[in-house]
Amino acid sequence: MLKLLLQGMRTRWVTLAGSFVALALGAGIIATTGLALAATFDGPDQAPERFAAAPVVVRGADQVRVRTSIGVRTQKLPDPRPVPAEVAARLAGLGRTAVDRTFPVSAGNGTGEAVGHPWAVAAATPYRLLSGRPPAAPGEVVVAAGEGAVGDRIMLTTPAGKGRWTVTGTVRPAPFERAVFFGEAEAARLSPDIDAVVVHADPAAVRAAVAPGLDVLTGDERRRADPDPDRDAEALVSVNALLGTAAGITAFVSVFVVASTFSFAVAQRRREFGLLRMAGATPGQVRRLVYAEAALVGVLASAAGCRLGISGAPRLADWMVQQGLAPAWFTIGDQNWPLHTAFWTGLAVALAGAVAAAHRAGRVRPAEALRDAAVDSGTMPPVRIVLGAAVLLTGAVLVVLGLVQDPAGLLKRKTYTTQPMLLITGCALFAPVLVRPAIRLLAWLPARLPGATGLLVRENASAGLRRTAAVAAPVLVTVALAASLMGTKAAIDAAKAAEARGQVTADFVAMSERGVIPAEFVDRARRVEGARVSTSRATSVTVLEEGTALVRSDARAVDPADFAAVSTLPVVAGRLADLDDRSIVVNEEWAVHRVGARVRVWLGDGREVSLRIAAVLAVGTGDNGVYLTPHNAAGAPVDRVGIAIRAGADRQAVERGLRAAGRATGTEVLTREQWSATQVPGGGSTRTGLLMILAIALVYTGIALANTQVMATADRVRDFAVLRLAGATKAQVLRLAGAEALAVVAVGAGLGGAVAALNLLGIRAALGRLDVPAAVVVPWEAVGLVVAVSAALAVVFAVLPARIALRTRPI
């Protein structure tokens, strides 16, 4: 049996080469993503950056800590409390101190994000003077090298508005922030709150001196005082999701490719297996022969894939760093478990792909050795019908249950990237049944045109169902994935933008690149005759659900009277006008969402309060958060201002006044239409991940098309000879081969489009259940690219082998 196996593999090396490449690539991608995933689990401990030279740092607590039945739960706070002035004075009695205040600044040419600090705290940070001197008087600043030279007069926008400052010194730029240093008195004027205090004293004495609600940070804990200390952890979570999805899609698509390759190969070897049965081989021996081929290819390909992974993982890490998906320090470690996972997964995929093929091979009767039929039959065994129906039914039931029970859940990335796989699998299982009517429908008109090409394309594709299905399946999978994933993301993005536009009725919206609107702009805007101004602050609230889980929700702090003039919210119960300092507006996702009920929450600065529910909002696309009054958002700066024009006011005069206020304070004033245009989501890591997934699927499609077309052409030498004897030229035969390839790709694209349409209609229905205006968005660019590449590959790998086959004389 071993000798027979090796001889057969040597004879059919072209057939097995496609499976080998697909498996090696799949194992390589799994090894690469696995090594990168392992690196996210074991990141190095990051040392403090900003306060690296500070012995002790005192700052407001940045976490809410709640004791539950399963231990202490924590949640990050967006607006830690400032350090009280009396505490800072008490700390000054323990030793030398430096007070830090952090506030937004636009530096240099007036664009980009920067932060301001008092110069006194620079000694506790990595900043050191490169030239000039520290700021000593109002109107003087120190900037990073490249932002200005000593003696320059630069324009800065601070919380107090726009102004010119003189550069008295420069410091070396830091990787963690873009800083501008002011004198102590001027920093206190621009930002009265104390954000942190550097203390040169015994930590125990400092802890004894501080009030509750303040953190005393020493050693590595000082990293919590860095700008955005959780950015690396959040980036690694995104990398985890991206790589995990990519690995799952890789396994899914590779099973398809390998299964279709083995299935088609077995169909081509009916007579060979019939001869083995006539020679005395049992069905079990034939099945074991197919399994042995799959196992041998799987072992060799998986080993090659692991080697690819070792080489590819560092390159993937570098690419993710360059794309901003991973932290700058992200590198691949020396873990071995991803390689074991990739190897055994590759072998399992090879064997799983051969299951149906081995079963079919074992059912070949000895009489098949004498059979020679041009028309495929028995392409849909009962097991395949039952399995396909079960998969399709499961996919449909999951969609219906999601629509009924949790429509918002269908909009989550983990759901919409995995759920289409069931419908894709079910449709692919029914491909042999669907292909014949699809090809006849597609070729109906060409078959009636003058000439025989259209007729031959229809009949050849219909007769060779296994060949047609094997070529159409990978196209179906890739088109369905491209249209489903990219279309779903586009539909959700469009729905979010439409929802945001529908909730804003303001005539103008003021924004700032720094994320903070200067108080001077608000004052100037309020003085514009005919303008009604509503300020809005971003914050959050945290609630304890089921006694064990701390859940944080984004929130906005608004004045309900002014806010009603610039916005309309999807209120399903209660009234927004009833919102006051002792109440809250929640959405239907909250465990408690009954008007009048009281909820225990922790505010953005860590305060624990009990608030009455004044109104309840619809869930929408997930961006309908919580609303509070400014009293319950202490420390949160104004980041958006809506302005409505009062009845009877001169619109042009109001606009001139607002734009003048914007120019004076470095604030951008947009019309409602201009602001709406900014709400269309861009790419981001989700789009990058989807494109990477589609690239993987497209590569597999290319492998499957090349392999299947080469295998199929080897069986069609006699067909080509008959055409030549009937008078067809070589060019006509090649055109026929190309036309057949295009027809089959069109069938696969059509079936994939149908599957994608079902998925996209499910997303549209989910958005409709959430009362969000939605439309089906077809990603024509992505689908067009997939179809074009598939068509080109199919034609090339159909025509080239046919051209080689035509070198043989027909007689």
Quick rundown:
With 811 residues, the protein is of the alpha+beta class. The strands form 4 sheets. Strands 14, 15, 16, 17, 18, 19, 20, 21, 22 and 23 form a 10-stranded mixed beta sheet that branches. The radius of gyration is 33 Å and the shape is elongated.
Task: Walk me through this protein's architecture.
- A hairpin with a 2-residue loop joins strand 2 and strand 3 (71-76).
- With 811 residues, the protein is of the alpha+beta class.
- The protein has 23 helices and 23 strands.
- Among the domains are: 56-232, no CATH class; 513-666, no CATH class.
- The strands form four sheets. Strands 14, 15, 16, 17, 18, 19, 20, 21, 22 and 23 form a ten-stranded mixed β-sheet that branches. Strands 5, 6, 7, 8, 9, 10 and 11 form a seven-stranded mixed β-sheet that branches.
- Helix 13 (431-442) packs antiparallel against helix 14 (453-463).
Class from helix and strand fractions: alpha+beta
Strand fraction: 15-25%
Radius of gyration: 33 Å
N-to-C CA distance: 36 Å
Average pLDDT, all residues: 83
What is the tally of helical segments? 23
Low-confidence stretches are 372-376
Rough shape? elongated
Q: State the total count of DSSP E strands.
A: 23
User: What does the largest sheet look like?
Assistant: 10 strands, mixed
* Helix content class: 40-55%
